[in-house]
Write a structure and sequence with these properties.
Layout: H1 9-20, E1 24-29, E2 35-39, H2 40-56, E3 64-68, H3 73-85, E4 88-91, H4 98-108, E5 110-116, H5 120-127, E6 135-139, H6 147-152, H7 161-164, E7 173-179, E8 187-192, H8 193-207, E9 214-217, H9 224-237, E10 240-243, H10 252-258, E11 263-266, H11 268-276, E12 290-293, H12 299-309, E13 312-317, E14 326-329, E15 365-368, E16 382-385, H13 390-399, H14 405-411
Parallel strand pairs: 1-10, 3-4, 3-5, 5-6, 9-10, 9-11, 11-12, 12-13
Antiparallel strand pairs: 1-2, 7-8, 13-14, 15-16
Helix pairs in contact: 1-2, 1-3, 2-3, 4-5, 8-9, 11-12
C-alpha cells in the first residue's frame, strides 16, 4: 500500500476486513422491524463495488457525491465507496424541501446524487436546480436508475490503483457536512480522511473501545456526531455499529439490548424525551456501558439519567461538526469555570484572540487562529500554552488534525 493511501478511511476499512473478516461490522434494524448484518469482509466488498460504480459515473478524486437518505446500510456503501475512489460525500437532511436540497446541490457542485425511493420526486426536482448534477440513483428503486442493480453489477475484486485509478490521500477531502450557526444558510464544514480518523481515534481511545464494543446510532447519519464519533470510533477500534432508522424514545433502550450495543450517543432533546417517558424494564437491562451527550446537559438531568438508566453519561464539548472532540464525565464538569476545558480533569479554559487569559484558564489553553494550510479540520488551527498536560493535549489535537504553532509557521 502506498504512503499516500496508508492512512485513509478506505485503508482502515481494508485493514479491519483483513483482521476481523466474518465478524459483524454493521447490525442494522430495518424499517420493517427485522435485522440485517454485514460483516467486515462484506462491507469492504460492498465499498469496492460502490467505488467502481461511482467511477463508472464519471466521478474522480475531489468530485462531490450527494447522499439523500434516512439512516440505512447503503449510506455506508456510498461513504466507504467514496473513500476508496476519492469522491467527497455531501450528505443531506431527508427532510429538506426540493428548494432547500436544490440550493445545497448547486452550492456544493454535486455531480451525482443518491436518494431513497420515497425521496425520489423531491430529489429529482432539486437536481433541476443544480447544473452540475448529472446522475440520480435510487435506493430501493426497480428501474434503470436502481442503485442496488448498478452496484451489484460491479466487481468486488480488490481495488487496483493501476486499473481502477489512484485513491485519495490522508489530507484529501472525504466529507462536506453542513452546520447551522445562525438564522442564515448552513455553513460548509469540509473534513479530510485524517480529520475523520483523528476524531474516531480520539473517541475510541478515551472510551477504551475494544473489538467487542458496538456503537448504537439513532441520530441522523448526515450529522457529524454519527459519522465522526460513532462510526469512525468503531472503524478504528475494530468494533461494530448498531444502526437504527431513527430515534424513538419508547424503543431506545430495547433497541440497545436487541442490537447488543455497548455505547451510544444522544443530543439533549432525545435525552429529555427519554427522561419524560414512562419507565420500562429495558431501562436497566440494555447492556450499555456509556452514553455520550454531544451538547451540554444540566446537573439535574445528568443525575436523573444516570440514576434511571444505570449508565455513565459522558459529555462531548463543542459543536458537533467543527471542534476536536473532548470527552469528560458530565458529573465532573458542572462548574462554569470548567466548561470548554480541553483536558479531562481539573479546571481549564481558553485564551482570547489577542492572547489574553480568560478566567479559570490555568491548565490548558487553546487558541483558535488561522486555518491550517492543508488537511486536518479546516478553520481550526490550535496553539497550546503553558499546560501541565501539554503532551496529552498535543496528542489529542494532533489526532484531530490540528497543527502545532511551529508546524503552521513552516507551512506558511
Amino acid at each position: 500500500m502506498s504512503t499516500r493511501t496508508a492512512d485513509t478511511v478506505a485503508a482502515a476499512l481494508a485493514q479491519g476486513a483483513a483482521r476481523h473478516g466474518a465478524e459483524i461490522f454493521l447490525a442494522a434494524e430495518t424499517p420493517e422491524g427485522g435485522q440485517l448484518s454485514v460483516s467486515w469482509a462484506e462491507m469492504d466488498a460492498r465499498a469496492t463495488r460502490t467505488a467502481r460504480l461511482l467511477r463508472s459515473l464519471g466521478l474522480r478524486i475531489g468530485d462531490r457525491l450527494n447522499v439523500h437518505t434516512a439512516n440505512c446500510p447503503e449510506f455506508y456503501d456510498l461513504w466507504f465507496g467514496a473513500a476508496r475512489m476519492g469522491a467527497v460525500l455531501v450528505p443531506s437532511d431527508p427532510l429538506h424541501t426540493p428548494d432547500e436540497l436544490g440550493y445545497l446541490l448547486a452550492r456544493s457542485r454535486c455531480h451525482v446524487t443518491v436518494a431513497q425511493a420515497s425521496l425520489r420526486d423531491t430529489t429529482a426536482r432539486a437536481c433541476v436546480q443544480a447544473p452540475d448534477c448529472r446522475h440520480l440513483l435510487v435506493i430501493g428503486g426497480d428501474g434503470h436508475d436502481a442503485f442496488h442493480t448498478a452496484r451489484d453489477a460491479q466487481s468486488d475484486a480488490p481495488w487496483d490503483p493501476e486499473r481502477d485509478g489512484a485513491g485519495p490521500g490522508p489530507h484529501d477531502l472525504l466529507g462536506v457536512l453542513h452546520a447551522a450557526s445562525g438564522p442564515g444558510p448552513a455553513e460548509e464544514v469540509p473534513l479530510s480522511h485524517a480529520a475523520y480518523l483523528g476524531a474516531g481515534r480520539n473517541i475510541a481511545g478515551r472510551l477504551r473501545m475494544r473489538p467487542d464494543d458496538r456503537q448504537l446510532i439513532v441520530l441522523p447519519l448526515f450529522r457529524g456526531n454519527s459519522q465522526q464519533y460513532a462510526s469512525m470510533s468503531a472503524l478504528v477500534s475494530g468494533g461494530s455499529i448498531a444502526l437504527t432508522p431513527g430515534f424513538t424514545a419508547a424503543r431506545w433502550a430495547g433497541q440497545a439490548a436487541t442490537l447488543q450495543a455497548t455505547l451510544a450517543g444522544l443530543l439533549p432533546a432525545p435525552l429529555c424525551m427519554l427522561l419524560a417517558r414512562e419507565e420500562s424494564v429495558w431501562d436497566t437491562s440494555h447492556g450499555l456501558r456509556a452514553v455520550i451527550a454531544t451538547q451540554k446537559m444540566s446537573e439535574e438531568r445528568t443525575t436523573s439519567f444516570e440514576k434511571r438508566f444505570q449508565v455513565s453519561l459522558l459529555q462531548l464539548y463543542g459543536m458537533q461538526e467543527t471542534v476536536a472532540p473532548v470527552l469528560a464525565s458530565a458529573q465532573a464538569r458542572r462548574r462554569k469555570r470548567e466548561r470548554g476545558a480541553p483536558t479531562r480533569r481539573g479546571p481549564g479554559g481558553r485564551t482570547a484572540p489577542d492572547g489574553a487569559r480568560r478566567p479559570g484558564a490555568r491548565l490548558g489553553h487553546v487558541r483558535v487562529g488561522r486555518p491550517p494550510a492543508a488537511g486536518g479540520i479546516p478553520g481550526r488551527s490550535c496553539e497550546i500554552r503553558s499546560a501541565d498536560s501539554r503532551a496529552d493535549l498535543l496528542s489529542s489535537l494532533s489526532a484531530a488534525g490540528c497543527r502545532r504553532p511551529n508546524e503552521r509557521a513552516e507551512a506558511e
